[in-house]
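Weekly structure sync - notes
Attendees: PM, LS, DV (DV joined late)
Agenda: review two folding runs queued last week.

Item 1: First target. Sequence and structure tokens pasted below for the record.
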Amino acid sequence: MKGYKGWKNSVILIEIVKNLNRKNWHNDKHFKILINNYAYSARFISLHRSNNEFFGELSDEIIEEQIKFTEFLVENRIPFMEIVKSRKNERFLSVLIDNQPYRFILFKWIDGIHMTKFNQVITEEVGNMAAVFHKTATRYSCNSFPKTSHLIAYEGFVNRLKGELNSKDILKENKSLLNEYLEMAKLHLKNAETDQFDFIIQSDLNPLNIIWNHDASTIKGIIDFESITYVDRIEG
């Protein structure tokens, strides 16, 4: 735990409770921290997130709009994680870590559990929450988010995997299974093509981004903001 001189010389106590960095495609840093015994999610979004061209750029302008959208959701009683602004009312701060630029963002911590095995009750709860989320999102519009299909990135991954089929490290029987899967994926991507991107959504709404109370009866919160963008509703 470290003590810092804060506003009006008060002491601010900051403790890193948990390092949430996982092996991932991006270079972000994520921690659960305590500030004067209150829990927060501290995110450091890298300016250079990946060498993979499929993910595109996450500019300051897009991050600002994504956080505005989370504020809109919270104002409309969607249990999304809640931003903590700086004393100058900024939604994020630009910082350097080891001479690398990051955008520092602080959210209130949502305490709960993840559910990765769904039963009928849990599935119904998620469906109801998604319906309310989608209906609320239709009332939000902006010009900052790009209207680009995620299918472009998915197709890029499929083509890259097909290029690895001749690798000596893949067993012959596995190559056949992988090729069959990739051909099926390309068919689905072709069938899903659209040029209508008029719907804003958190496009990574998977079980690891939904927080439940400890008896798994109620959704406590939805997390992960950096996937918020315009998408086709079915694609999303």
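Item 2: Second target, run right after the first with the same settings.
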Amino acid sequence: MVAAEIIETITSKGGRIWLEEDKVRARLPETLRPLVGVIHSHKLELMAELARRPTMPAGVRLIRWAPKAAPVQLSQCPTVTNVDLFIGSTLRQLEARLNGKDWLAGNWTLSTLIDRLDTVGCYVALDDPRAALQ
């Protein structure tokens, strides 16, 4: 099992895995407890893979990480030529929007920002979906 598959398995079953300084931390559902040994044996791979992924703002969780290769055409914007830069700036806009700073979010709605991330392969969800309705 490679690092991306381990992460996908954990997150798709409701678990969580993250980097904390030089340690890989995981919160696993009971059904995935057998993966503890796999996590330990693939620690370096997991650290490298998790380090590539962007940090999520508070209240947002990464569902799936599958960044597309540039160029990516968006429906309401010009073509994205640097996907990593686009994801980082859109996550900052999402964080600003969640904190009520609409002007820093480019006045984009939460759903539009999430859709923009989806388009480039960064699938996220809000911990409190009711926030999208406000």
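Discussion on item 2: The chain has two domains: 3-52, 60-133.
Action: LS to circulate a short write-up before next sync.
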